[in-house]
């Protein structure tokens, strides 16, 4: 991992997450990106809680990952729309993370995801740092992820094309991950698959980026889990009510049979008495 540890700006010590900007002063999100980030986070939390019973992991949503000291500092950061870092504390010294600083932490994200808002060229830009000059202040995103930040997996999601590309580091470079028979992309260290789900989330019907488990079961959000639990409860109530009605019908039928048998016995007894026979002596 290459991180500038010296500075031409007169800085004698490297800044931490509290000393670096947590915003570049721009707004670039569309109305789909915020719920998309929430959807990814909400649905993966139960899985991450199983992977990290000690709670040692961090999720970033459009947060800066600082990899190089620059002026202004924002030029030395990339901001994935969503990323996950295993085995790090969710806060630092009791303070919420303002950014993720590689020279402070050294642990790379396991996966970084970019949501394409243009034609995807920015997310696939492989321009190296060596080609940066007066006309260009930052290297390409793809190059920074592949060569510097180095998440094991890098995903590029395009809602307009209903597609996602997933790359995996193999021998110091990214290679495309092939989709499995379900059209999903395995993220083995997390025990999940990433893919496109066409459906309604919130009030939007879109091809959403979502997680599945290894068996191809969709990982549900908290709201979806609650809705499923309510549906299962209703179904259980319906089964219990159907069983109660069945038992009641059987009891009623049994009573009817017993009453019919009693009436038959009484008629037989009357017939015997009419013939001068005491039925109790039989």
TrEMBL record:
Molecular functions per Gene Ontology: endonuclease activity
Any coiled-coil regions, as ranges: 219-275
Entry superkingdom: Bacteria
Keywords: Coiled coil, Endonuclease, Hydrolase, Nuclease
InterPro entries registered for this protein in UniProt: Uma2
Keyword Cell division part of the UniProt annotation: no
Pfam families tied to this protein: Uma2
Domain Putative restriction endonuclease: 30-197
Presence of the UniProt keyword S-adenosyl-L-methionine in the record: no
Stated name of the protein: Uma2 family endonuclease
């Amino acid at each position: 991992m290459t991180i500038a540890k010296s500075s031409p700006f007169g800085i004698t010590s490297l800044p931490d997450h509290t000393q670096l900007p947590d915003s570049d002063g721009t707004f670039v999100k569309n109305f789909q990106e915020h719920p998309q980030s929430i959807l990814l986070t909400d649905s993966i939390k139960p899985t991450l809680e199983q992977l990290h019973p000690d709670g040692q992991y961090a999720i970033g949503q459009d947060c800066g990952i600082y990899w190089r000291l620059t002026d202004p500092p924002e030029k030395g950061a990339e901001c994935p729309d969503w990323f996950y870092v295993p085995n790090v504390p969710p806060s630092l010294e009791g303070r919420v993370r303002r950014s993720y600083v590689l020279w402070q932490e050294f642990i790379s994200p396991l996966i970084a995801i970019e949501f394409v808002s243009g034609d995807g060229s920015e997310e696939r830009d492989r321009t190296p740092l060596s080609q940066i000059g007066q006309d260009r202040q930052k290297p390409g995103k793809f190059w920074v992820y592949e060569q510097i930040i180095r998440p094991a997996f890098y995903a590029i999601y395009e809602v307009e094309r209903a597609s996602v590309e997933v790359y995996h580091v193999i021998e110091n470079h990214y290679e495309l991950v092939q989709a499995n028979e379900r059209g999903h992309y395995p993220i083995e260290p997390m025990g999940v698959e990433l893919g496109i789900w066409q459906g309604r989330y919130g009030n939007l019907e879109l091809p959403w980026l979502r997680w599945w488990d290894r068996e191809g079961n969709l990982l549900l959000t908290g709201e979806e889990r609650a809705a499923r639990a309510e549906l299962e409860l209703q179904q259980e109530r319906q089964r219990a009510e159907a069983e109660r009605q069945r038992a009641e019908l059987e009891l009623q039928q049994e009573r009817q049979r017993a009453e019919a048998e009693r009436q038959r016995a009484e008629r037989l007894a009357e017939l015997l008495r009419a013939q001068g026979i005491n039925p109790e002596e039989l």
